[in-house]
Amino acid sequence: MPDFRLYNSLSREIEPFAPADGHTVKLYACGPTVYNPAHLGNYRTFLFEDLLRRVLRMRGWAVEQVMNLTDVDDKIIKRATERGQTIRQVTDPVIGIFHDDREFLRIQRAEHYPRATDFIAQMIALVRRLEEKGVAYKAEDGSVYFAIDKFPGYGKLSRLDTREIKSGARVAQDDYAKENAQDFALWKSAKPEDEACEAAWDSPWGRGRPGWHLECSAMAMAILGETIDLHAGGIDLQFPHHEDEIAQSEAATGKPFSRFWCHGEFLLTDGAKMAKRVGNVSTVADLRANGVSAAALRHFMFSTHYRKQLNLSGEALEGSVEAVRRVGDFAERLERERAGTPGLAEAAETLLVEVANAFGDDLNAPRAMGALFEFITAANRELDVRGKDAEALARAREAFRQVNAVFDIVPDRVVEDATLAAWVEQQLAERAAARQRRDFATADSVRKALEEKGIAIEDSPTGTRWKKVH
Ligand code: AMP
Ligand code: ZN
């Protein structure tokens, strides 16, 4: 296999990547803030991480992935206060929707989905460690802050100029601009509205709650260890979120926090970042209402490199619907055919080499997608010849399976049909066995079960044929 190379935001270079232990990639991806269902912009990032995860596995590594669920923050508290609910009452249903949407989009399940509110003890312990190192201090407002001028590495990810690092000035809210690089809140003292919605905990500094950045540092280190292989997220998280995660983790441990940092670019609508506050969001529910399949959305997202901006439009989605139809027709044909030609085996070989090269070159999914469609054209041409090489067909099926294991873009109809076909074949085998032993009652009940699913069967001297009648 060729090298596997990834762009590392920390060095601003494409570097060879492999997990530190040579076996399991410790991957942390910043998850959703669960006050509202995630939108397709969020899902562009989560799909980029799904692609990354699947490519790492295709390379033969295991992946241990954490995606946190931010279930306490400024926005959640605001929502709970408006509704007179607790933060749990706001976040529980949104987490349910997140997993439904994730499954619909065929995003593989991560190994861990920690909720921030389940890791308060680890967060408090981390702030204590930072106090001991002399980089955290309690301010007059009762909150605990990180002193950025005490940590020499501050700004290395987002390349802050030392002149931009203001000592002593403080910022309490979670999100702020780069021009305002200031001491940021690790632990925020509780206000009455925090208490009212159950977003306050006991701590050595009095009642309070964690800052957003602290949540990720504590959960990543508690689950994956003090140095992880790869940390991913959307480009907007680079500053301040990831810069602050690095500061908190490295100031506490003295070790590198993550070896690689990977950031995905934005999804836009009409040229503007898709964002709740801009009001231009669409959701998975909208997608489903418009009959756009997960396969089509995945094709759309993976046809642009993850470090380039991507504009969502109806036209582009239609193109993807058409493209995955072609993939589905081809998948069906591969199942139907009985043999191929030596040329088919060659095309399969080329596909695997080109896809490995493309993914190994900073996850170049559009190039890999191009290779897949070239393969489909070449394979269709070879299959038209009606060759006799069963081994060649098996290779084509295997190559297609491997590439689709990453993209996962065969549309539902075909997936459902394949599942149905497997079930029908199994029923027919049972029926044949029953008839063999002259157990006609069982044979009849199998026929009835098939009819109930809209399957008509026809016995002939060469065996039983079946077809779907509705
Ligand atoms: P949030 O729930 O806002 O914390 O965001 C969850 C993830 O979605 C983060 O990794 C963000 O960087 C990412 N994200 C937010 N908006 C977009 C967008 N328009 N395009 C791509 N990723 C986004
Ligand atoms: Zn995070």
Count of folded domains? 3
Overall CATH class of the largest domain: Alpha Beta
Strand content: 15-25%
Mean pLDDT: 95
End-to-end gap: 47 Å
In which range does the helix fraction lie? 40-55%
Q: Based on helices, strands and strand pairing, what is the structural class?
A: alpha/beta
- CATH overall fold name of the largest domain: Rossmann fold
CATH superfamily of the largest domain: HUPs
CA-atom Rg in angstroms = 27 Å
Structure notes:
The structure is a single chain. The chain is an alpha/beta fold and 470 residues long. It has three domains: 5-269, HUPs (Rossmann fold); 309-407, Four Helix Bundle (Hemerythrin (Met), subunit A), CATH 1.20.120; 413-468, no CATH class. It contains 15 helices and 16 strands. Zinc ion binds at residues 30, 216, 241.
